[in-house]
Amino acid sequence: MALSVHKSGGRPSVEGTEALDRTVLDSATRAFLADGYAATSMERIARMVGCSKATIYRRHHSKEDLFRAVVRERCRHLFDAMQEASLSPADPLLALRQLMWRFLEFSLIPETVETYRVMIADGRRIPALLDSLADEIGRTFHDHITNLLARALHAGDTPAEARWLDQLAHGLTGLISGWAFRLALVGRQPFETAADKKQFFDTTWSAFAMMLQASRKNRDAGP
Prior knowledge:
Blueprint: H1 14-35, H2 42-49, H3 53-59, H4 63-74, H5 76-86, H6 92-107, H7 110-122, H8 127-153, H9 159-185, H10 194-221
Helix pairs in contact: 1-2, 1-4, 5-6, 6-8, 6-9, 8-9
Keywords: DNA-binding, Transcription, Transcription regulation
Protein name: TetR/AcrR family transcriptional regulator
InterPro entries: Homeodomain-like_sf, HTH-type_TetR-like_transc_reg, HTH_TetR, Tet_transcr_reg_TetR-rel_C_sf, TetR_C_Proteobacteria
């Protein structure tokens, strides 16, 4: 059923417009996750919403633009986590720990897993779009981790240290979510209970924190 977005005088209401925006995004999400990027058409999404294609194109200029909006929405949990971490300037290590816990949770959300499956399946058809999303979302998240590590370790002043921090950030994300996310991608459940997930995180974070502590001691000791 088409949504009504007009007041009695004919002008769109704010509430109606926002509701239609939400419906377009929700319908596009369902279509992309069910059929993939290539097999989803703007015509189908318009039928799901109950509106014209022109209505969708006024909000999203192309199918790529709409898919980008879907991915951004799916990553809102991660963006919120980065924002919260940025509000903890006094203890960058604690902020990093909280961020990585949110990252593990984000990685295992069913919609996150399905979105990655779509990108893997259709990646060769839309390489420019995936590169753009990697720069916008992936690089932003990676840089946030790197900055927190630099503050925690008082490092990053030289090109060699910057490269080390970059590698360390990649290693941390793989340590925290790599194994669990790979299982989720192939349809397996990495953790039987929430307690199992928390125990896994505490174990992997403790190992990483011990390495950071040793690194800080070595830096404080000097040459």
